[in-house]
Structure formats: structure tokens, C-alpha cells
Give the backbone structure.
Amino acid sequence: ISNLRPVKRIPDLLKILARTKPNIKLLILAGEDFSPYIPLVKKLKLQNRLIIKKSVLDIQNFINASDAGLYTSEKESFGMGILESMAYGKPVIAARAGGVPEVIEHKKTGFLVPVGKIEIFAKNLNLLADNPKLSLKFGLAGKQRAETYFSSEKIVGQYLQYYKKIVGR
């Protein structure tokens, strides 16, 4: 998460973490002040399971070091962070919001979960943590999907066609 706006549902992320196995840690790449969420972190006793990094420029290193991507946003036009996780071969669990279903194939590249369904998010995160083969399968399928449908080679051509169509009017 690089932006902590309310739409990102940071409390949901923390509540999900609280319902997962104790060996699971959550990394939040915070572009903004995380201090408003500290009381909830303390209430849920997550201090030792949470890593907050601010002003990260080498996001690819953090994505590559992670085991999965977890996205709880209630509004998402496309989900660039989700696509970045997939491009690095990481399985993704994301809220079924906006354009996210266009990116993730449910139970093929990750899991799509109704917005706010903490228990379902936690169940799926525990499932991936317990099943490295499934995690790898989703990650590889996600990487393939990202390369096939969303690579710059694919998308730039689509934009060019669109611009030519607009200019040609």
C-alpha cells in the first residue's frame, strides 16, 4: 500500500492480519503518515507482525521479497499495485472492486473477495501460507497473465490505436 487514504481500508488489513497465523507478517509501504492506525495496531497486538516502510523508491525489491499481495481497497479503477505483484509472480488476494476483476482471475491468479469481508481475506491468506504449491501456481499464472495482457508491449499498441482513432475523427 503506498497511499493510506480511507478508501484503502487500512483497518481491514490490520484486522485480517490479526486473524491469520502468528508467523504471517504484513509489510505496508506507506507514502503517508501511518500514526492514525497505531492505536488499532496496539489494540490488536500486531506490533511484532507489522513492518511499515515510508518513502520507498525501490518498491520492486519489497514486492519481490514478499510472499503475496493483499489489497483491500473499496474503490480501484484498475489496480496497478495488484498488477505489479502479479508481474513479480506473487499470488494476490484483493477486494472485488472496480477494475480489479479485470486483472485477477479468481482461483487462478489469486482470490477476489467481497469488500470488507475480513474473515474471507484471512482464510485465503492462511490457505496460501499453508500451501506453497498453490501459492506458486497462482503466482506463476499471475505473472503469465500480467505479461500476456498487461505488458507495455501489449498496452502501448492499444493506446496508439485508441489515439489514432480519436485523432482521426
